[in-house]
Amino acid sequence: MDFTQFCHSDEGKGERIKTDVRRGWPGCGPRAGIPGCHWFIGTSGTLPREERRAFEDRAAAHARAEVRRRGWWPATLPYWLDDDLAILAEKQALTHAARAQAAINSGATS
After folding, report:
1. 18-73: per-residue pLDDT in tens?
2. Of 37, 32, 82, whose CA–CA distance to 57 is shortest?
3. pTM, entire model
4. How do the domains of the chain map onto residue ranges?
5. Which of 46, 66, 71, 77 has the fewest CB atoms nearer than 10 Å to its CB?
6. What is the Cβ-side half-sphere exposure of residue 89, based on CA atoms within 13 angstroms?
7. Residue 77: pLDDT band by 50, 70, 90 thresholds?
8. Angle at alpha carbon of residue 22, lines to 13 and 71, rounded to 5°
9. DSSP label at residue 2
């Protein structure tokens, strides 16, 4: 049996108010007396707020990247701006690295 459940990030929400689904992440849900990581991260109070938010940001970014990689992103749902900026920065860094390597390979100096 699968115990994965969708977890909404806690930042910016209140009782019965959910955050944007693009800020969610997959977590393990409750089963047979085990509360699961969804409870541990969001409800237990074990993680300090800043640590919890940092985890949720990383987990949500990873989930968004995986959904995009698999081609599952809904056509009508805009991408998350921070993801697009990170992808652009990574492409620019790779382009710069490729140009630098080409210059080294050709014996050119900068």
Report:
1. 788 899 999 988 888 888 888 888 888 898 989 999 999 889 999 999 998 999 99
2. 82
3. 0.70
4. 4-77, 80-110
5. 71
6. 6
7. very high
8. 165
9. -
